[in-house]
Write a structure and sequence with these properties.
The protein is of the alpha/beta class. It has a single domain (19-309), classed as Metal-dependent hydrolases (TIM Barrel, Alpha-Beta Barrel). 35% of the residues lie in helices and 15% in strands. The chain is built from nine helices and twelve strands. A six-stranded parallel sheet has the order 6-7-8-9-10-11. The chain is globular, with a radius of gyration of 18 Å.
Length: 321
Amino acid sequence: MRSHPATTGRTAAPAAVRTVLGDVPPGELGVCDAHDHLFLRTPRLPGQELDDPGAAAAELRAFRELGGGSVVQWTPRGMGRRRADLAALSRATGVRLVAATGLHQAAHYAPGALEPLWDRLAEVFVADLTTAPVRAGLIKVAGGFHGLDAHARHVMTAAAEAHRATGAPIAVHLELGTGADEVLELLCGGLGVPPARVVLGHLGRSPDVRAHLRAARAGAFLAFDGPSRAHHATDWRLPDLLAALTDAGHADRLLLGADTTTAAARAATGEGPGMPYLLSTLRPGLAAELGEDVVTAVFTDNPARAFASPWPAPAPPGPAR
């Protein structure tokens, strides 16, 4: 497998989760919202930006009061991720936060905005993960509806190179929950990313249990996110989907997240249900259906494995000059 220059002369450290305040042992994540957004800006949601640090802090505190310990923010480059604000929020609320590098679909960027980065995406992603003042802990990419366009393939190729350099997990937006087979064929079959380093998002939006079982058997992590979103398959389908995967022996591949994408969807300052809903309503309901052991795996044990990496140790100093 081809190595990246960033790994030259380095040795892997014990597995850790890279948060905005530094690396932590996986077991310190606690109860985790595995896919959410505290800040987000896109031309596809004009006037619905997540850009208020005070509102983000209120949401995190509400989540924390219910036992939440960590949130993985999937907002990638160029979409208002505000890493310095993430670090300040983590300090103020006590919730561990994981930030993202990577890119979303082309439609989420102004025309020409990506051109300066296009031929050096892997380098940019690696810098975000390893040398930025506030470092990312995962690489976000995105597929299309039932397939991959040229933009997605280019970004995923760069993400795979950045993964090889750092070990960082790759989190994938599946458009309306579709295209998991194509994503895994490219990332794992073509580009050599281990399936256990891939997190597939939005699977609940397409309640195709056969596709879910194929992805789980391949070894990827499966994220079910955005509960109670009126225009998606929502809560009433979720227990059956998770039960089918659990019955097939894949409880260790499952993740849950709120995927809050607009200010109105927040609980503390909007119309909800927001981030706290995961723990106030969804968690006890799933515990009654699936058992406490499964719910503990989904909210605590699985995120600790999905988002931990053996990050390369800093390169030793070179010879004196």
